Every structure is written in C-alpha cells, then in structure tokens.
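User: My instructor asked us to take a sequence, write out its structure as tokens, and then describe one feature of it. I'm not sure where to start. Here is the sequence I was given:
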Amino acid sequence: MSDDWRRLAERVRNWGRWGDDDQLGTLNHITGDTLARAATLARRGKTFSLAIPLNGDSPMGAHGLRRAPVHLMAIDGGDENLGQRLGNWGGGREGEIGPVYETTPFRVNDDWIIMALQSSTQWDALCHAYYDNLMYNNVPASMSTSFGVMRDGIDAVAEAAQVAGRGVLLDIARHRGVDAVEAGAVIQPEELDDVVAAQGVEIRQGDIVLIRTGWWPKYAEYGLDHGPAWQADGPGLGWRTAGWLFDHDVAAVAADNVAVEPAVPREGIVLPLHMLALRDMGLMLGELWDLEALGADCAEDKIYEFFLTAPPLNVTGGTGSPVNPIAIK
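Assistant: Let's start with the prediction itself. The structure tokens for your sequence are:
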C-alpha cells in the first residue's frame, strides 16, 4: 500500500476518540440535537424507500463470495387440502397443523428468505473490512469467530438505535449531466466539493451522505449479459474521499453501487476506501441503495436534504445487515 494511503489512514483514524470500548465510530457524530433538527426536515410528508428488491436479481448473484437472496414458500394457497394430506403423518408439529386446516376456516401463507446479510441494500458493519489483523478501535481480528464477531458487529449499531438523522444526497451523475457515471470513474474530494456548491447544500456534523452515480438502473438495464462486468468496474468514491468525509464529520456514507468505491483494484489496493472507512474511521458504508426516485425529486425541488432513517437488523455478531432506508422530505 502506498505511503500516501498509509498517511491518510493515520490522519483519519478515530481509535480512542469516543473511548476504548466504542463500537459505533462516526455514528457518535449523531447527537440528540442533530437528530432533533433532522426530524424537522420532514416537511412535505413525502417518503422514499431506498431499497432495491430483495430477490434473485440482486447484483450479488454474480458474486463469488455471496449469492442472491433465495425466497422459498413454506406454505401457500395450494395447500387447501393440507389437513387431509397430512392425516396422521409426521410428528407433533404436523399433528398441530392438520386439525387446524380440517376443522377451522383459518389459512396461512408463510415463507423463508435464505441470504447473505450483504446481498442486497445493506450496511457494512465496522468489523466487515480490516487490515494488519486489527479492526476498528484496535480490536484484534481474532474477535471474529465462527459464532459471530464479538466486537464491532452490526448488533452494536442496532442496539444503539442511532442510524437516523439528516441525509444529504450528492447527485454526481446529474452534476456531470449524464444518466450514469462512466464505468471505472473515480470520484475525488474536489468533485464532492463542486457538487455541494452546485446544489447549494451544506455538509454538517452527523450527516449521512448519499452518493448517486446512476449505477443501479444501469445495472438493471444491462441485465445478466453485461451486468457482472458493470458491477466489477462500476464508478465510485476514491480512497482520498476518506479525508473529506473525516473533515466534514460525516456519520455514514451510502451509494447506489455495489461497493461505494470501484470494486476493481486501484493502485494495487483492493477496496482501499473500505479499509480506511470501516477499520480506521469507524464509518459505516451503505451499498446498493436505490437513489433514483429520491434523486429525481431533489432535482425538481432543489432540496437535497431530508430526514433519513436506516436501522440495521439486530443480528448478533453480524458483519452487516439488510436495510430498507426511508428518506422523508
């Protein structure tokens, strides 16, 4: 890794800033006051879900580490005669279901989801990426076990109930005058400053910054033939933006692409922003957020701030979590 990258890692490292036992990182920038002010941004009562569909079309379907979510029906409308078919077959559970279907009008649909926690719209927990065998706040990598991650897991974030506040959309694609930022493009801090100025918005302590590149609809357009290639070389934030996020006291950052940053190696480093953000800053990354409807609305009314709530699931020892972020204007 380059000397410049190492120097930036030292500059943005927040270890000990909020105490030696801290597991929230930059979410500490969200205070009661900032949250209360953010709630006043819900002026029109207009809501936007920022989640992509939870189904087999997830971009993670082309990922070697993960797979797209699998949705299975456990019981459905075709089971009208379930009681008759079960009869006296099975164990105690089947014995409970059979009489219900035979003697009452009650019917039920039930289903399962089998998925990697980060195979759709999601947060990366602080334990998700690290280097030199240390995770955020000097936690040794050995704290990650086959039973779960004992420190810096997504459960610490869920229990704190602190992922809500002022959201700010930085629409890179519209600023460039394109539907989608070109493949492989690296967004640098200077461009973030340009977009902030052009949109007339201010970045404040505790903000959750959303980056729109136009990646998600482009992926959907490409489909199975070209989607994997677009996934691998999609646009995203360069690692130098870690300094920008640090200097602005940003609480978290999310984007409409698969990794916030370009997924292919840059300067010999794989996912350098992940390491700086998660391991050094303690700043969560949100991936695969659908920012299209929100982006169109912000472009129309020229208001790029809103109340945002995006709590993760309380998965004990989890390295990330699916989420349905809601922006309210």
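For the description part of your assignment, you could build on this observation: The CA atoms of residues 190 and 241 lie 9 Å apart. Try explaining in your own words what that tells you about the chain.
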